[in-house]
Amino acid sequence: MGRVLVLGSLNVDLVTPVERIPGPGETVLATGPVLRYAGGKGGNQAVAAAEAGASVVMIGAVGDDEPGRAYSVRLSSRGAYPRLAVKHGHWTGMAQVTLADNGDNTIVVLPGANELARADVNDITAADVLLCSLEIPVPVVVDAVRVAVAAGARVVINAAPYAVLPPDVLAAADPLIVNEHEAMALADSGLLPGSLVVTFGAAGAQWDDLRVDGIPVDPADVVDTTGAGDAFCGALAASLCRGDARDLAMRWAVHAGAAAVQHRGAQTDPSF
Known about the structure:
This protein is α/β, with parallel strands linked by helices. The chain has helices at 41-51, 66-77, 138-151, 167-172, 180-189, 228-241, 246-260, and strands at residues 3-7, 11-18, 35-39, 55-63, 80-87, 93-100, 105-110, 129-133, 154-158, 173-179, 196-199, 204-207, 210-213.
């Protein structure tokens, strides 16, 4: 098994349970206390890749605060070696999550220490697969991808939240992973990635011409959809790192995404 290097965000998720997601201008009452979970696309994907058997290094940043110190310890305990910049004068990233009884959610992210600088990222060459997402500054991702390509690493980019990437960076993505909404934004850009994975939630995913159906999950077992896409990305990167073919990697990823909706919080064992 090779090494997956994950470059991305680390957030503390503050989750408020509600019966249903409120509409615009509407107020609803919480059905329980606010819960604190570990989250952020980078952290979620790193833990998912480690759970899928990869050797994982997590590059990101936290604040000089209790949540940042706790997250670093947590990553180590979950098999994702933390190589984190500590940003003095910044708080660790935070996400405010409203979680409905049916598993739907809305999320507002406060980046905090996730505003990485180029100087915070190093040793990108020490990876077989570089997995990036876009909750951190795009120029940092661009630089990391170019260094990884020069070093011969495989690049996997989860273009979420969607942002326009330079043509050479998109071309290096093998694959670029997007959901249906992000796929439409990509189509509007007129730019092409090296290869493209589109996820369709419970309906599965498609990698170029290869379609893999979703894993059926009883609606009664859907607890929280937060982080399902991150579980998919982490498992896919781990599978590619060990040399699996596209179809096997996609099956691993779809299984991971289906499992993720059956527990509360973006990561398994979400207590934090």
